Amino acid sequence: MKKRWKKILPFFKNNRKYFIAIVPALIIGALVFLTLLDNVRTDTYDIQRFAVSEETIRSPITIENKQETDQRIREAVNAVPDRYSISEEVTEERLNYVNEIFDAVLTIIAEHDEGALEEVYEEEAVELRALLSEEIRSEISEDVLISLLQQPEEDLEEAGAVFSESLESVLEQGIRAENIQSGITNIERDLAYSEMNEGLQEDLMELAEFAVVENAFFDYEATAQEKKDAATLVDPVVIRAGETIVREGQTITNEIYEQLELVGVLSQEGNIYPILALGFLAAIIAYFFGMECLQIAKDKKWNLLPIVAVSLLSALAIFVMKIQSYFFDQSNALYLVTPIAAIAILLKVLIGDRSAVRLSILYAILAAFMFNSYIAGMLHVEAAIYFLFSQLAAIVLMKKLSERLVILKTAIGLILIHSAVIILFLFLSFEKYTWFDVFLYLGLGIVAACLSAILAIGLLPLFESFLGILTDMKLLQLSNPNQPLLKRLLVEAPGTYHHSVMVANISETACEAVGANGLLARVGAYYHDIGKTVRPAFFIENQMPNKNPHDKLPPKESADIIIRHTTDGANLLKAHKMPKEIIDIAKQHHSNSLVQFFYMKAKELNSETEEADFRYPGPKPETKETAIVCICDSVEPAVRSLQEPTPETIDSIVSSIINGKISDGQLDNSPLTLKELKIIQHTVCDSLKGIFHSRIQYPKKEGDK
Asked: Quick one: which of 23, 115, 281, 695 has the most CB atoms within 10 Å?
């Protein structure tokens, strides 16, 4: 066991930096899993048929009710009538038979005198039958033919036209086997309305029984295609996720019970797949959160406090969304009032823009799951979009806290962005909204914007105090001349105070030129020489003319007093609970430089004097801001000591000081590049030329000495 620990412990020691990111990632991943468990897990119910539901149950999934769909398809198919095709050949054939009868009768009548046909003999009927087709002879009785021969020619012609027209109309509508009699009746009705005599009508009615035959036959292919089309047009019966299946107090009928069973809310086994999917989602969130924490740790020199801040803010964002989701359902839009933008503002102020943007995307993704009305499988895309725009707007609108009205401007900007997104949602929706709804939603967005600004300002001091994270607002407070240490510096070491102010101005300008934190450099420069207040008279800028206490001290002791002001300053700052960044500037602003004046003086007295005894303890500057303060702290007194600070002289001194620090290795630990050092040199020179410019020699008045 001991051997295993001996192998494991070195691994933890060598990779302890990465555990700074791994542990928060695991915590956030577990938190995401636990808070979203209710949103993806399907609740099950023990319900019996014909019982009364004790609560409203909604479908957790979108699924097709195949049984109901099949039933509707059967109903649609059965509703399709049989399709029949009308035979034009049969229609034409029956019309031709009728025309043939009338033509033959008229032909026989035309061949005989009218008087000769008053008494018709069987010979004429035989002659008529000889002119007709076999089918007509077999179907039409001889009595009907004789009766037709006895009718006047004009009546026959008119009757033939009426009968043919009526027959054609009936046959074109289609005559099936079961409605032949109906077709005959239609013809009889047409004949009854005509003006022909009763005898002729009786003959034609008998003729109709011969002429009306089946001419519409069942069309299997057309019927099958019609049924197929009808089945295709039936929309599937789908139970949508979130759809109410049974309401509280409603009786569970067979149909409702089958729907509950279909969507899986009666199953006591549950569905493991949503849990597995949630675990996968939590793992993805944890991975990206861990990578973000790792990047923050690298940027912040492996400082644990920013990681703690990010973890706390992320946990706060998750809890706020979760609590808000309990009051949200599909009938309201309470997610609009969630002050998620406050988290984005705090992340930007405490950590930075990039981290705030990346984490805002993660929060928006979580919102899509969190505000799904606890319906498994659903995502609230509108909430995700709203949260994303709200957070990104807050990040963009939130400028430096050094501006007095920045929070008010941010709140106004958030109100506009929230209103624009809400109006966009309303315009894209197919639902109709009243003006009351529109103003209600806009009001919720306005409340969210105001709450975000208020919470951001209220929570920021807490994070600053408990976590010790330095923000622009804290720096502004520290730059107030009424701060106890600055008042002490002004009273006890006025020369040092003036020097610190000059260094602060130059340092801030140089930092902004290379993208460093100018406000941090300014405030750090205010306090960088605070250690001189312990023995202010031992520093030349605070000495009265011809009163230098170093004249009575050996060089080594004088050097120790000068060197000690960095540690004295750090101790003072620690005692006043100043931020670590300010303390580091006080400790590192002289790097490990040599107190050259006293070293040379000691060297004259003792050639074996060690140079290391006259160097500052350091450490060397580790940030851009500290390195710039280090450079400006050396440049400002050197230029101020010039009798005639011409631009050429200033350029020469600044260049020599920076090159000297580079060659002496004092800037080795700083992240400044040679290109940035060149920019700093030009910026510092321009600032010093503006401060130590040439003065106009005003003419003296007569009598002035």
From this structure: 281
